[in-house]
């Protein structure tokens, strides 16, 4: 079970980093937006380092789809940004909602286990979850819910995340 | 029973007969050969598990003496290969067993676990595609060296260690 969690988390954070990179590539000309996106991207980079360390510490096989997650994330970032700033924010809102819920599910399962070795894991995932939810709030503050066809984009991207999570857990 | 059966392998090979003989000697009925699922391959599987465990234990306190990952990897490989040495005369038989189509999944599982464990012991912390690349490369090197060892008649198996060194 922990194997799967760590495997998915690493793939997820890889995608998160490249989503922001993709959005920066398109929307980076506006200095305020650039600062915001770079800040969120840097936080995701730290998360990815944490996940890489978990992979090594717990001797977990990383998903072979990890490079796919990186490329897919970039494409998603660029596409959502090309649709406009609000759509980019919707993309972030959807991804962070799914990831936040995902980390919460993991923590719920992890807290049933009382081993001391897992304390560090629980703490890191909790920290990542908090920052992801922060990104969610930021995205909403910047007009995520005002995007055209918001509901459609939101559900589509959330659904895509679920599929990716399902795949990465197994492969 | 399986551990005792391993001592019979030299004479009776990687077969159900070894397990039956071992069971009888220990006072169990010959029907106890069921502990080795599939006969010879069950015994072989037990050996592979045990060899890996013994390698991990043996290597544990000596790893800090080496400076580089390469040195550590060579040492761990040598230790694991030495586990096969007592059975080297019958090893081609074992390799043939592992190559049979119905045993291939099991063989791949053992090889994968072996390769992965050796890398972790050597201090591997890769987390990307190189995780896979390293393990496949090591598996290939290990397999070829083990087969080379079967035919090596040099004193103290020097040629095998040189073979390994060139590939690692």
Q: Helix and strand layout, with pairings?
A:
The complex is a heterodimer of chains A (171) and B (168).
Chain A: H1 2-27, H2 31-57, H3 66-82, H4 85-110, H5 119-141, H6 150-170
Helix pairs in contact in A: 1-2, 1-3, 1-4, 1-6, 2-5, 3-4, 4-5, 4-6
Chain B: H1 2-12, H2 16-25, H3 40-60, H4 69-84, H5 91-99, H6 104-121, H7 129-151, H8 158-167
Helix pairs in contact in B: 1-2, 3-4, 3-6, 6-7, 7-8
Task: Walk me through this protein's architecture.
The complex is a heterodimer of chains A (171) and B (168). With 171 residues, chain A is mostly helical. Helices cover 82% and strands 0% of the residues of chain A. Chain A has six helices and no strands. Chain B has helices at residues 2-12, 16-25, 40-60, 69-84, 91-99, 104-121, 129-151, 158-167. Helix content of chain B is 70%, strand content 0%. Chain A binds chain B through residues 10, 51-52, 55-56, 59, 61-62, 64, 66-67, and chain B through 116, 120, 124-129, 131-132.
Number of strands of chain A: 0
Compute the CA-based radius of gyration of chain A. 16 Å
SSE ordering of chain B: HHHHHHHH
Q: What value does the Rg of chain B take, in angstroms?
A: 17 Å
Taking all residues together, what is the mean pLDDT of chain A?
A: 92
Number of helices in the DSSP assignment of chain A = 6
**Oligomer category:** heterodimer
Query: What gross morphology of chain B would you assign?
Result: globular
Low-confidence stretches of chain A: none
In total, the number of strands of chain B is: 0
Strand content of chain B: under 5%
- Give the count of helical stretches of chain B: 8
Order of helices and strands of chain A: HHHHHH
| First-to-last CA distance of chain B | 37 Å
**Main beta-sheet strand count, sense and barrel state of chain A:** none
Q: Largest interface, per-chain counts?
A: A-B, 11 and 10 residues
């Amino acid at each position: 079970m922990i194997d799967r969690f760590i495997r998915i988390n690493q793939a997820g954070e890889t995608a998160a980093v490249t989503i922001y990179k993709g959005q920066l590539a398109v929307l980076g000309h506006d200095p305020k937006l650039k600062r915001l996106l770079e800040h969120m991207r840097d936080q995701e980079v730290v998360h990815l380092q944490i996940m890489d360390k978990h992979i090594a510490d717990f001797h977990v096989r990383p998903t072979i789809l990890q490079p796919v997650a990186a490329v897919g994330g970039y494409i998603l970032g660029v596409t959502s940004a090309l649709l406009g700033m609000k759509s980019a924010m919707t993309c972030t809102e959807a991804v962070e909602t799914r990831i936040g819920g995902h980390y919460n599910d993991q923590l719920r399962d992890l807290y049933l286990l009382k081993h001391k070795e897992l304390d560090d894991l629980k703490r890191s995932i909790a920290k990542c979850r908090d920052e992801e939810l922060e990104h969610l709030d930021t995205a909403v503050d910047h007009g995520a819910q005002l995007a055209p066809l918001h509901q459609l984009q939101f559900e589509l991207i959330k659904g895509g995340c679920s599929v990716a999570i399902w795949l990465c857990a197994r492969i | 029973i399986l551990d005792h059966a391993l001592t019979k392998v030299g004479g009776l090979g990687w077969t159900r007969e070894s397990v039956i003989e071992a069971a009888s000697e220990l006072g169990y009925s010959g029907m106890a050969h069921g502990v080795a699922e599939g006969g010879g391959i069950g015994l072989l599987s037990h050996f592979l598990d045990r060899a890996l465990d013994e390698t991990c234990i043996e290597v544990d306190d000596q790893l800090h003496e080496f400076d580089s990952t390469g040195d550590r990897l060579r040492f761990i490989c040598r230790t694991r290969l030495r586990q096969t040495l007592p059975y080297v005369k019958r090893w081609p038989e074992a390799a043939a067993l592992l190559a049979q189509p119905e045993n291939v999944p099991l063989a791949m599982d053992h090889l994968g676990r072996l390769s992965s464990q050796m890398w972790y012991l050597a201090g591997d912390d890769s987390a990307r595609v190189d995780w896979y690349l390293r393990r496949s490369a090591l598996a290939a090197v290990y397999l070829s060296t083990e087969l080379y060892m079967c035919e090596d008649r040099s004193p103290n198996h020097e040629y095998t260690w040189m073979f390994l060194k060139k590939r690692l």
